[in-house]
Amino acid sequence: MFKMNIYIVNFFILISISFSFTSTVKPGIISQAFQIVGRCNKEHPLDMKEMEKAVKSFELPTSEEGKCFISCFLEGFGLITDRQINLDKSIEFNKMQFHNPDNLEKANAISAACKEELTTSTEEGCDFAIAASKCMLEKSKEMGFKFFQFHS
């Protein structure tokens, strides 16, 4: 139990860091992320090895529980609904993270490209969230852009 709590805390820290791109973050976003992660971990407990990979190297989970955790998280923020990327919510979410206009433009372009690419997706259930996450990572690499930027 103690080891699990360490990884959950690390995951929360990871989320907090990912939301701290600039000094201005929409109030309550970190609190909301903590609530969503807590709820999703209760509904879909992550395997500790998958949690560690997610925290240390942003590797997407491969277990059903791990995939459903990611789905729960993305749905919790409204980023995916009914097997679709919710572009309006994605743009709103991007605005909370990226205050540099160039970065915001890139993030929105990636969100739009993945929405378009996955419009005809046949992925079911939690696999759609993984497909959406993979798309975001691949498009980010293609554009030389990092969604997660850490500041000291």
UniProtKB/TrEMBL annotation:
The transmembrane residues are: 6-25
Any one GO MF term held by the record is: odorant binding
Report if keyword Transmembrane helix is assigned. yes
Q: Does the keyword RNA-binding apply?
A: no
Q: Which UniProt keywords apply?
A: Membrane, Transmembrane, Transmembrane helix
Sorted alphabetically, which InterPro entries does this protein's record hold? PBP/GOBP, PBP_GOBP_sf
Q: Which SMART domains match?
A: PhBP
- What protein name is recorded for this chain? Odorant binding protein 17
Q: Per the UniProt entry, what species is this protein from, by scientific name?
A: Nezara viridula (Southern green stink bug)
Gene this chain is encoded by: OBP17
